[in-house]
């Protein structure tokens, strides 16, 4: 129900917009679009087929262009940038925060990058170059160098006067950072603390030095984990010498968490979260065909196992009728184990110390499920083909295949992770290959041994 | 690579802890555990098998107990609560924030709930009862009623004096809310604005009245969408009469986003995100067997189609060898379409206005992929069984099945959503049923028509 309410809102906007577009009245479309936040506009653009997408993009307020570009996937961004001339792009991106700009800059044409750099003042240019010098998916790339710092040997009153002089604080500032003379990170002061203490209070009484700073080389995923484990809204980023370089805010972390989730869901189907839902057909084909071809190879391997038993099948055609059940149900059981493992690995909950307990548990679950469902499947097979031995064969093969599924479901993702491969991407392919191949082998093998003797 | 670093940290803690536990030295375990945040302790407890889990739970500082309980899944929570006596539970939960307590309270034994309510002062008890009066998964249930409000007809100076008198602000306060005499929500004031403006500035000059308040009945998913679309850190919650009831903070929203993602990943395998990785075997079997049984039924339906073609297979055993390829690859192609649709629906990007364009695109992708991979599969089949007509049959059947996969992948999740069912849960089952059944039918049907004539 809740799910339903949720899409309904976005889907309603989409429908309204689509109707207005179809009617050709662009005035209402423009008004509708410009009541939305940049993220919402990005979402709408992603959901529009090319053609309509360009029309709506042309109606977005120029001042929102930059933020909208930040909020769409790489492929849609490319299509939007293709519609803009260099001047428009420069105007759109020059006012972005440094971290957002760093995120965009590599998708821009080289000539535009030069223009953007020229349009920035020296300080911002240096900051951008610094952020870009860190690897993608690290804290350095996520941070915003725009930070308000104070010194420890002062009072609330002095800080308040400084802040009033300074005017606006950077977006999402919840703490000021206290640094040493050499700009080393000492601790942080909550804005709330400044507001709730008397003007005469010395700053060093308000310092919270418990929050460890994030290392600039920390991975984005580890940053996300720390934020959600500690309920941080922002965190300081430092280099090896503890020099304060910038800060990361929760809004960027929310984006990482969403991206991770999308990546996990889509990579299991061999897809990329940055792809456009409306990619041109040849491009979509090119992307999908690789993963399908890998699955084709494993399908041929499984068939070649069936091929070894042609003589058996020729004698008992019922085997051909029943064999997909063993393979398919094994795959289903394995999918359950794999889903648990992929989550466990993503949360760091599975490792060398508990994998044996987990494997043993999964084997027992597989044996019990095999006993239960094997009995059902075996009885149906017996009744269908009037042969109790066939029931015995399929029941045993199913139980065996459940055990194969448990073993593969636990060990494949662990092994992939150890090889620095993505368990979500390759786990399913390996699992199906195993449960198909060994499912056919155990069923047809047992049948040959028991039924043909 | 980044992924690897991430688990490594948590997995390392897990290994250290596990080694210390195995050696029986509880002192180091206690020290190690109590350097962690409650969320990290929760994560560790989730990753420990029962037995070890109870030992470590006994070593957690009593003052962290409540927060740890908030940070674990329902089933693990139940196992932890089972280890505590009522007094311990009351002591653990009585200091929690109202929204966290509301989250826990339904898992507590009735006698404990009474004790907890008795231990609270009247104001907090009323607040808890109010929060509990809203449906689960609504804004009302997520909100914390502890909010700092100010009036519009005053100055920065007066507010500062009030805040100094008041002392600490509730956690994650980034705005004060401005309310009318009747406690109606008017707007918000950033803490940053109070710090950067002169004491004499009238409050009504600083009010930001652009942020719409969240309706108390709004669904949790819609709340999460609004937070991430607008980069909010917190938002006010109001009732139908615009009376301010509380506020929701980003840390709760991050939890919702994580839960949604886990739910999507696990429900596709018929699992629940609140299950314990180390559930007792009988319980795990009970849970998994239902989903497997549903898949068993669809597998039997697919086999019954194969059963219709026993006579054909008896004459051409090669068909039994090749038929899993058509069914399996069709399933894979459909999985890709389904993954895109489930994401599109979750983001509200797919609706009546663009489903036709999408379907037409997917059909074209399916036809092209069918042409490409159908040619490969057909050629291999021809070479393997020395029959060009067999190649033609399997190539055509594969293309047909890709189209079935595209149709089902687009339409099944849409239809499920319209029926208020979860597309992530049931989509895969329906998809496999279709691609297996129609894959076998088209392959064996075409073979009967073409090869046996």
Automatic annotation (TrEMBL), chains A, B:
One of its GO terms (cellular component) is plasma membrane. PROSITE patterns: CBS. GO terms for molecular function: magnesium ion transmembrane transporter activity; metal ion binding. It comes from the Bacteria. It is found in: Cell membrane; Membrane. The keyword Membrane applies. Keywords: CBS domain, Cell membrane, Magnesium, Membrane, Metal-binding, Transmembrane, Transmembrane helix, Transport. InterPro entries: CBS_dom, CBS_dom_sf, Mg_transptr_MgtE_intracell_dom, MgtE_N_sf, MgtE_transporter, SLC41_membr_dom, SLC41_membr_dom_sf. Its main location: membrane. The chain crosses the membrane at residues 289-310, 316-342, 363-385, 391-412, 424-452. It is a multi-pass membrane protein. The keyword Cell membrane applies. Acts as a magnesium transporter. NCBIfam families: mgtE. Belongs to the SLC41A transporter family. Homodimer. This is Magnesium transporter MgtE. It comes from Luteimonas cucumeris. The lineage of its organism: Bacteria, Pseudomonadati, Pseudomonadota, Gammaproteobacteria, Lysobacterales.
């Amino acid at each position: 129900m809740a799910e339903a309410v949720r899409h309904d809102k976005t889907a309603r906007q989409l429908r309204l917009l689509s109707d207005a577009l179809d009617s050709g009245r662009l005035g209402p479309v423009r008004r509708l679009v410009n009541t939305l936040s940049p993220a919402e506009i990005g979402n709408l653009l992603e959901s529009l087929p090319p053609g309509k997408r360009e029309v709506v993009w042309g109606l977005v307020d120029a001042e929102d262009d930059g933020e909208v570009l930040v909020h769409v996937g790489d492929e849609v961004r490319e299509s939007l940038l293709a519609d803009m001339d260099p001047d428009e792009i420069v105007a759109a991106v020059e006012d972005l925060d440094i971290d957002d700009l760093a995120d965009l800059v590599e998708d821009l044409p080289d000539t535009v990058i030069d223009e953007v750099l020229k349009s920035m003042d020296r300080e911002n240019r240096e900051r951008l170059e610094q952020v870009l010098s860190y690897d993608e998916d690290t804290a350095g790339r996520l941070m915003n160098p725009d930070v308000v710092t104070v010194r420890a040997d002062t009072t609330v009153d002095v800080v308040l006067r400084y802040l009033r002089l300074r005017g606006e604080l950077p977006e999402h500032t919840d703490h000021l950072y206290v640094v040493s003379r050499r700009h080393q990170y000492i601790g942080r002061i909550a804005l709330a603390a400044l507001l709730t203490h008397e003007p005469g209070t010395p700053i060093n009484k308000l310092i919270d030095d418990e929050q460890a700073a994030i290392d600039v080389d920390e991975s984005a995923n580890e940053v996300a984990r720390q934020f959600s484990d500690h309920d941080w809204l922002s965190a300081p980023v430092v280099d090896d010498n503890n020099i304060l370089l910038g800060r990361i805010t929760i809004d960027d972390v929310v984006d990482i968490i969403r991206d991770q989730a999308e990546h996990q869901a889509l990579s299991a189907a061999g897809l990329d979260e940055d792809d456009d839902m409306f990619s041109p057909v040849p491009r979509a084909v090119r992307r999908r065909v690789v993963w399908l071809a890998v699955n084709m190879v494993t399908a041929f391997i499984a068939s070649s196992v069936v091929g070894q038993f042609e003589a058996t099948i020729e004698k008992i055609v019922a085997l051909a009728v029943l064999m997909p059940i063993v393979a398919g149900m094994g795959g289903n059981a394995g999918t359950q184990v794999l889903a648990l493992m992929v989550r466990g690995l993503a949360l760091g909950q599975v490792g060398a110390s508990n994998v044996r307990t987990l494997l043993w548990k999964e084997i027992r679950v597989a044996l019990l499920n095999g006993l239960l469902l094997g009995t059902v499947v075996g009885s149906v097979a017996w009744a269908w083909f009037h042969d109790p031995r066939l029931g015995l064969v399929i029941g045993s093969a199913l139980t065996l295949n459940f055990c194969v599924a448990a073993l593969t479901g636990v060990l494949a993702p662990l092994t992939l992770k150890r090889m620095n491969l993505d368990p979500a991407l390759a786990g399913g392919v390996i699992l199906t290959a195993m449960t198909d191949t060994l499912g056919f082998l155990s069923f047809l093998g047992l049948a040959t041994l028991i039924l043909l003797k």
